[in-house]
Write a structure and sequence with these properties.
Number of strands: 0
Distance between the termini: 70 Å
Number of helices: 10
């Protein structure tokens, strides 16, 4: 290959990186808008402004508002993180997290607000349901294993979401005896959901 050919092809990699960076910027801006405003009130033009791009690029990379919403929703599910859960410490660790302030991990709280917005909109709830089955409940079922994994996964997910709502409303960390009792009780709940029952349903 000649030097001229090498030089001619060199710009291809930076263009690819720029495209990836642009797509990521749009996606991050979209997650913020959908979390704050919901699907119906979010505007592609404003998302593009926050991403620092022309609105035409949003349509070029994502096709439209609904497709952008779906991609942003997918990016809010971190199913791969479940693989790292340690059965020996999971219940205690999740209870401590739920006893803390929602502001300890703003990114996680932001993702949860996005999911809540999606769940309460008739337009987006069906899209969320499909993704919850595929990216949330299925990995939990696989991680739990054993008998009645479907039901146990659903109860675990519902319990976790309920506690996240309580933490979001509370807005601050629990302290003193209330914190200790909360952690003990919540740990017991999640430990029980991880246990496979030997008896009949």
């Amino acid at each position: 290959m000649s030097d001229a050919t090498t030089l001619a092809r060199a710009p291809a990699e930076p263009r690819k990186r720029d495209a990836e960076a642009t797509r990521a910027a749009i996606l991050n801006a979209a997650k913020g808008h959908f979390a704050r405003l919901g699907y119906d009130c979010a505007v592609l033009r404003h998302i593009a402004q926050d991403a620092g791009v022309d609105v035409a690029l949003v349509k070029r990379y994502f096709g439209g508002k609904e497709a952008l919403f779906v991609e942003a929703l997918k990016a809010s599910f971190l199913a791969d993180g479940m693989r790292a859960w340690d059965r020996a410490t999971f219940a205690q660790e999740i209870a401590i997290t739920l006893a803390d302030s929602p502001h300890v991990d703003e990114e996680r709280t932001h993702r949860f607000q996005f999911l809540l917005r999606a769940a309460t909109s008739p337009t987006t709830a069906p899209l969320l349901n499909v993704l919850i089955q595929d990216r949330f409940l299925e990995p939990i079922r696989a991680w739990l294993g054993g008998a009645d994994a479907d039901a146990r996964a659903r109860v675990l997910a519902a319990s976790y979401i309920g506690f996240l709502v309580e933490r979001l409303v509370r807005g601050e960390a629990l302290e003193g005896r209330e914190r200790r009792v909360f952690i003990d009780r919540v740990s017991a709940i999640f430990a029980g959901l991880m246990t496979v029952s030997d008896g009949p349903p």
